[in-house]
Description:
Largest sheet: none
Structural class: mainly alpha
Number of strands: 0
Amino acid sequence: xxxxxxxxxxxxxxxxxxxxxxxxxxxxxxxxxxxxxxxxxxxxxxxxxxxxxxxxxxxxxxxxxxxxxxxxxxxxxxxxxxxxxxxxx
Length: 89
């Protein structure tokens, strides 16, 4: 996979870049319905990637400037994002 689906790709680029990591802002935007993207799609995409053992960490690195060295590292990071953004799940 050479690209992530939308809205996940845009959310990672806009809220989860290493130079402007705004996870609390993302959680607030979702909680207060200020998002311009499909929140249900984002939730499903995060669930899908967290459950997968084939996460394209190189693509995530390119989007966010993280330096993951394995799918497992990226998976844990996405799990933390999911738990922070959707805490009641």
